[in-house]
Amino acid sequence: MTDTAADQTQTHGTPNPDLKIIETRVYRGPNVWSYEPAIQLVVDLGSLENFPSNTIPGFTERLLEFLPRLDQHHCSRGRRGGFIERLQEGTWLGHIAEHVSLQLQQEAGHDMRRGKTRQVKGVPGRYNIVYAYADEGVGVAAGELAVRFVNYLVQPTAEFDFTTELEKFIKQAERSAFGPSTQAIVDEAVSRDIPWIRLNKFSLVQLGQGVHAKRIRATMTSETGSIAVDVASDKDLTTKLLASAGLPVPRSDSVRSVEDAVAVANKIGYPVVCKPLDGNHGRGVCLNLQDANAVREAFPIAAEQSRRGSVIVENFVTGKDYRCLIINGRMEAIAERVPAHVVGDGVHTVAELVDITNADPRRGVGHEKILTRITVNEAARELVRSQGFELDDVPPEDTMVKLTLTGNMSTGGISIDRTFEAHPENVEIAEEAARMIGLDIAGIDFICPDITQPVRETGGAICEVNAAPGFRMHTNPTIGDPQYIAKPVVDMLFPPGATSRIPIVAVTGTNGKTTTSRMISHVFKGMGRKVGMTSTDGIVIDERLVIRSDASGPKSARMVLQNPRVDFAVFEVARGGILREGLGYQRNDVAVVLNIQPDHLGMRGVDTLEQLADVKAVLVEAVPRNGFAVLNADDPLVRKMRRKCSGEVVWFSIAEPGSEVREYIEGHCRRGGRAVVLDRSDLGDMIIMKHGRRSMQLAWTHLLPATFGGRAMMNVQNVMAAAAAAFAAGAPLHDIRQGLRTFNTSYYLSPGRLNEIEVDGRTVIIDYCHNAPAMRMLGDFVDKLGESLNATSEVGRASRIGVIATAGDRRDDDMRELGEVAAQHFDVVIVREDARLRGRKRGESAELITEGVRAAMENGARCRQVETVLEELEAVQHALVRSNPGDLVVLCVDQHQSVLAELESVSHLAQAGARSGDEGGDPDFVQPEQEPDTEADQSDA
Description:
- This protein is an alpha/beta fold.
- It is built from 31 helices and 38 strands.
- The strands form 8 sheets. It has an 11-stranded mixed beta sheet with strand order 25-24-23-26-22-27-28-29-30-31-32, with helices on both faces. Strands 33-34-38-35-36-37 form a 6-stranded mixed beta sheet, with helices on both faces. A 5-stranded antiparallel beta sheet has the order 19-14-13-20-21.
- A hairpin with a 2-residue loop joins strand 13 (320-327) and strand 14 (330-338).
- Helix 28 (812-823) crosses helix 29 (844-858) and helix 30 (872-882) packs across helix 31.
- Homodimer.
């Protein structure tokens, strides 16, 4: 957006309400637009592209008439009123929709201020609107309403009533918002940098991650005992327990019939109280019952609110109503609760006074605001009548007219802070009551003439103990100072010095992500950590595969962080997940970027390697000041990411000593930095870890099983990246060395990634390779492995047969290039296709790859024959049939489980045939049943 939109656009015709939303994305973590969660709307202005705001008569005036607080927006000017200046000078309507979306959220109580609007390159009239949100549903609704509102301002219609729509929007926001108690605790957690996750649409929230996680639901916590809650909900049992401890309580008994209630009332003496055995919020409580008839009338009211059907009858204790809040055994706040009432002014009726009181903007429905609106029901009318008034009467000035007997905030009462006025003996009684019941957070209700005097002397008593007491009477008292009671709650859950986060290592790049993630996980599993790992193969929790799917996206990361066993997380992060939802978590302690290669280009607006690098760099931007970014110094695009890192950079490189890259790394280490490099000698290649001026030998590459004797250079780089990440995450050198020495590419440790098996005399390699850069690395390994097989073969030159494919959503040229590269390294290329065609026709992808193979063959490539077998298992079977004992067969697979089962079947049949002398194999052999794949989180779908 520029400040001179009108100067760049010539208007013609009449503006039409053409603004519409093309796409909506919700980012739930750091993303390509913002470090904070954000919503992106892709909008099309249509004809409005030709009509900036100053060219539409009356537009700005109508906008400010409905949303006058837009004059507070700074916009790009950096001062209040800056947005108004932009409107008057002329700005596009997509930009206006951004500010309206933010202001609508502010109208709903969400103080959101961050936003930006950028034109989609090369598409006139199309814009990206990005703005912050606090609640996902409210943020999306704000954007949708903003677009409708802007269209209305362009061309007003009778069908759209903004005032009504705004009220509906605010009510939606209030329904989805946390209650005052939950919000107070979450705000306190955020102020301490404690991460939180909302687990449902209501008040169930997780604070912290993995093994450190705690849960709250309103003011009930994961430390709250279920027995204590059951005891507190049984008012009769509560009274007996408190009485046994010598605490002042009213005389009472529980009954299940009207006549029993009357009998108990006659026994303990009038006046009495009838209340449900297990009620809450003051519902069904009938006070100051003076005779048996009043008890008979009150009993069904109390019984209706009792889940068990029992009613408590107790003597009526007179005095003021006080709520003592006990947290972790200590009194933290006391509030005097005043029942819902109005005060006469000599002018208005009782009903009018109620309307005036309810007009207070602090009052809302239920717990949505700090005060609750007063409801005039039949009980309220009777109470008013008992005080000598009717609703239509005008009470004298300064006369208090009660509308409820109980002081609950939920029935419209108000609160007065009395925290620092209570007598120490009363505080001790309240704390002892909470201990007797066993609640970590308890609301102790006192009825006494004056909380400043000992209740034992004034005749007061504890009338109730509440589990999960509301906080709003303390955090937002009607009179007095607010008490910051969320602090002791969070102190209880996370004592000073306690950890709330688990270490997170995030791995991204075009190729090698899965293998590197597995190596890092293996190192820390060897150290005894309970590792949660996500990858394209699924979610692994402490070595157990719990979900099998492409799980390299943000949803899977959140699932790991919610698991109570996990104390270390390793996330494979794919490009698709970042573009779709962002990271899904707030930050990673270690970010690993392996490489940036031409793959996934032409998808979701990413057309160049530089744009792809910007997407991958989100991980680096999410590194905190005390974190690390492990970067490939050999990749220029990865090397540039160092400027986006707030923490420390750890380089890894296979560059030769004396090269420009290596000299740069040496300078970095001389300044105290860290790096992992490769030193070559006649004895082999040694991986060196450097920290400052210290150099530590990690291992010879040929002694690491995953490198196939040093021949698999792609795994040498993966090992170096994994070692650097583990070192940055605090693993000792000997644990890193031991982990990498014991990690191999067997199917158990690294399924589908460079697995080597023997099938009837053939060497078979299973790998996931699906793009040209990966094929170059795989081809280099195939060349070295083929030479090794030739040197040991008794039949001479071993043939190389490759089964290859790629995803259908890749560009045509990328598919051809894959075929060209494969043709350089295989004698026979068999082209197959994935089961998911991703928008292609059957056979189309295979034909493009085949074109690339044939073009390379015409230019003298190694390949002498190319064949097409579309179905994966049929292609595997055909490759085995085309091969002879001693040959090398490389299978670039999609469903590695099915392929492995097929290879085991072939191997089993061959062995059975050899034992029986029957080439038909074992007729009783049954192929292992395959587990179905589930799609929980498609990262690149």
